[in-house]
Amino acid sequence: MLGSLPEIETDALLRLIAMAMEDERPEKIDVGVGVYRTSDGATPILSAVKKAEKRLWESQESKGYLGMKGDKLFPELLKPVVFGSHADDPALMGLQTPGGCGALTLGFKLVKAARPDARVLVGTPTWANHEPLIRGAGLEIVTYPYYRKEETRIDFDAMVEAFENARPGDVALLHGCCHNPTGADFDHGQWAKVRAIIADKGILPFVDIAYQGLGDGFEEDGAGLQGLMGAVDEIIVSQSCDKNFGVYRDRVGCLFFKAGSPEASARAMDHVMQLAREMWSMPPDHGAAAVRIVLENDDLRQEWLDEVASMRARINQLRRRIAACDSRLAYIEDQKGMFSMLPLTPAQVDKLREDHAIYMADSGRFNVVGLSDDDVDRFCKAVLEAMDG
Ligand code: LMR
């Protein structure tokens, strides 16, 4: 039976990771996958997380099951970080998931359970795994252009038009901050307009926030989502700690949602727990427990905030350096988070890989912080050459 399976292409980004790992050219620049790197190319464990893991190891007395919600304190401690002054909304509930992917899957399955014919409005390009996860939940996708790659700007009019044409009960997938793959976030005015149309058209916002703290700061990066919280009765939020706690392989995420009332949210939670039970039953504990320990101890919390601030400073310093290389790259300074997208064709991206050992996604997306300090000039020169070629 299994022998009859057809060949399929595996995920392009995962293929890129494997190719970059196999390339032994010393000049290799890997700006493919989105992981934070120091100038030496390392992805270190944050010191606050390492200390929390030590405390966990010393204090944990059982590995008995925790239940479908995982660590119950973990979402409660994350709420103020993600939702600011809306954290105490009694209708806001959350549960631990295996990474952001787990939260997205669970959130879209919740939509499918509540409204099987809901459509999901997705701005393209978006993170490569969004569409497979939405389709996997059995929902229809309606795409609209989010970004004009050649003009290096958001196509806000196209998005407004797509939202104007939405049906009440459709879902809009939004990036909370640090848009993956473009780095192009809404400004305040655009968020205000998004809030107004969503509320007016009865669209359910589904906000994916996986890079909070790596753009302008936790408050600034959470402001768009927090503004939405005040404007709608219902919202779904997939959150990831993989990047801002550097716990990538531990798969640490959270699904939050708010229905129209605390009672309606509690009913939704029963559905969510059943859906989780059918997939992973209970989420893995270790990474979320370490994050919980960081958040509940003032000393570790401050150390973590300082470490994120220094990651953010490095990202933004690299952005400024790239932007200073040439006016055609100047837009990169204004974008946010780990990624920006270069106006390159897949053939130009291939050539960068073949001629310069530079690895980036076919779309031209590159991980800004995959560059070491010494790489920047060579990277910019090669990219500009490719753009001219
Ligand atoms: C990325 O976009 O590079 C990361 O979110 C890793 C992934 O799983 O795609």
From TrEMBL:
<keyword id="KW-0808">Transferase</keyword>
<feature type="coiled-coil region">
    <location>
        <begin position="301"/>
        <end position="328"/>
    </location>
</feature>
<dbReference type="GO" id="GO:0042802">
    <property type="term" value="F:identical protein binding"/>
</dbReference>
<dbReference type="InterPro" id="IPR015421">
    <property type="entry name" value="PyrdxlP-dep_Trfase_major"/>
</dbReference>
<keyword id="KW-0663">Pyridoxal phosphate</keyword>
<dbReference type="GO" id="GO:0004838">
    <property type="term" value="F:L-tyrosine-2-oxoglutarate transaminase activity"/>
</dbReference>
<dbReference type="InterPro" id="IPR000796">
    <property type="entry name" value="Asp_trans"/>
</dbReference>
<dbReference type="InterPro" id="IPR015424">
    <property type="entry name" value="PyrdxlP-dep_Trfase"/>
</dbReference>
<dbReference type="GO" id="GO:0030170">
    <property type="term" value="F:pyridoxal phosphate binding"/>
</dbReference>
<dbReference type="Pfam" id="PF00155">
    <property type="entry name" value="Aminotran_1_2"/>
</dbReference>
<dbReference type="GO" id="GO:0033585">
    <property type="term" value="P:L-phenylalanine biosynthetic process from chorismate via phenylpyruvate"/>
</dbReference>
<protein>
    <submittedName>
        <fullName>Aromatic-amino-acid transaminase</fullName>
        <ecNumber>2.6.1.57</ecNumber>
    </submittedName>
</protein>
<dbReference type="GO" id="GO:0004069">
    <property type="term" value="F:L-aspartate:2-oxoglutarate aminotransferase activity"/>
</dbReference>
<comment type="subunit">
    <text>Homodimer.</text>
</comment>
<dbReference type="InterPro" id="IPR004839">
    <property type="entry name" value="Aminotransferase_I/II_large"/>
</dbReference>
<comment type="similarity">
    <text>Belongs to the class-I pyridoxal-phosphate-dependent aminotransferase family.</text>
</comment>
<keyword id="KW-0175">Coiled coil</keyword>
<keyword id="KW-0032">Aminotransferase</keyword>
<dbReference type="GO" id="GO:0005829">
    <property type="term" value="C:cytosol"/>
</dbReference>
<dbReference type="InterPro" id="IPR015422">
    <property type="entry name" value="PyrdxlP-dep_Trfase_small"/>
</dbReference>
<feature type="domain" description="Aminotransferase class I/classII large">
    <location>
        <begin position="27"/>
        <end position="383"/>
    </location>
</feature>
